[in-house]
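User: Show me an example of a complex going from sequences to C-alpha cells.

Assistant: Sure. Here are the input components:
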Amino acid sequence: MTIDKIKTIIADHSGEDEANITAETTFEELGVDSLTTVEVLMDIEDEFGVTIEAAQVGKTVGDLVRAIEEAQK
Amino acid sequence: MEHRVVITGMGIVSPIGSNMEIFRQNLLNGVCGIDYISRIDVSDLKVKVAAEVRDFTATDYMTKIEANKNDRFTQFGIGAAAQAVEDSGISGKVDPFRFGVYFGSGIGGFNTFVSEYDVMKNRGPQRVSPHFVPKMISNIAAGQIAIRFGAKGPCISASTACATGTTCIGEAFRAIRYDYADAIIAGGTEASIEPLAIAGFTNCMALTQTDDPMRASIPFDKDRSGFVMGEGAGALILESYEHAKMRGAKIYAEVVGYGSTCDAHHVTAPDPDGEGGGRAIRLALEEAGYIGEEKVYINAHGTSTLMNDPTETKAIKYALGEAAYRAKVSSTKSMTGHMLGAAGAAEAIASVIALETGMIPPTIHYQNPDPECDLDITPNEAVSFDPELALSVSLGFGGHNACIAVRRYRG
C-alpha cells in the first residue's frame, strides 16, 4: 500500500508515531515544513521512482498519496 | 543612557565537561581534555590528537528530528544556551523585544558542508539536502537559539575566527550598556574536528603534530609547536544591572570593558610587536576604569603556537606596563585545546570562575620556560589569588583582537 510506505517516510522525518498518521493528517499538524517536505519527496523518489514537485504535495497525507498514484499511472 | 552590565547565567559544552559543575571542577583541578582523536579516521592525517567533546548528548536538549536538522556546532550552541538560560531564570521575565542573541561561530557547519558535498558528488545536485544551507551557515546557531527562547531583540552573529566568542560577548555588552537590549544570550560555538579542517589548519602550520596528548597544548612552554583543535560552546546571559536586580537574579560578575582592534598586518601571523592585541587589552582596561592597583587575572589567548605566545606576552606588557608582572596569567587552552570560535566564550566563563572562587585556573603541562614568555603563567596548579578584575583575551586569524574586562561582583 502506497499510504503505508508514505507513513513510514513521514514518521522518519517528523518524529510522529506512524500509528497517529492518517490520510486526513495535515503536514502542518505534523510540523513538516517546506524544507522537510523536500526531504520527504527525495525519499519518495527513491521508494516509488516518481518525481513529485513540492507544489503538488497538497495539505494532507492523502493528497500526497493521490499525487504519487497519479504520477505512477 | 548607560547601564551597568552583569552576568546572570552561564552554560558550557567543552572537552573538560559539558555542564558548569564539571567544567568548574576540572578547570581548577587542571584536568586535560586532549586525547587521541576518536570520532574520525585520522590514518591519513599528520595530526593525531584533539580536544573532543565526549559527554554531550544532543537529545538531552532537543528531539532526534531536531538534532538531525542541526549541525554539531548548532547542537553545542543550543546546549550551552539552554544551560545558561535555565541558570539565569530569565525565561518569561524579559520583554522578548528587548531580549537578544549575540552568538557566533568561527567556521560554521563544517561537517555538514563536507557531507553534502559528498552527496552532490555521489548522487547529484538534486539530492543535496534542503537543510544543507540553513544547517551550514555560521549564523544559524544564533538563529536557532533565538527561535528556541523567543528572543526577538537584536540577533547578531559576529565571526572573527578565534576571537568570535569574545567579540560576541563584547558587542553584547555594548548593546546592553547603550540601551539596545535588556538581556542577551552571548557566546560562541564550534565543531570543526573534521579531516578537511584538520588538513587545512595543519598546512597553514597552526597545529602541533606531536602525538603525545600531554605535551601537545603547552602554552608559553619553550617546546610548544602549535595548537590543538578543540570544540564546544560557551554561553553567558548578559543583562543590565537594573533588570537583573528587579527580577532578583543571581549575579556572577560585572562586564566592565571591551576592546576591539585589528592588526591589519597578515592573514594568520600576528603583528610581532604585539601592538594590535595590546591596544585591545588597553581599551578594555580603560573602559573598566583600571587604576593599575587591582589584582588582575588574564585569561590569555595562549594558543601554544610559536608566534602567538611571545607576541601576546608583549601585548600584555604593552597594555599593563610593569603591572603585567604582578598579574596572574594562564592559558586554559592547555586543558580545553583551542575551541576556536567558542574559545572566547569558554574563557570568559573561566574568567568568571576565577573571580567567583578566587582561584586562578592553571596552565597545565608546563615544563620548559621560554624567556620570551616571562609572565607568571600560573604553571601546573591552580593558585589562590582573589583577583578583582579579569581580562579575557582572544586573537584571531584575520588579525582580529578582542578583549573583555570582567569585575568581581560582591553584593
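The lines above are the inputs; the final block is the predicted structure for all two components together. The interface with chain B takes residues 13-15, 34-36, 38-39, 42 of chain A (CB under 8 Å).
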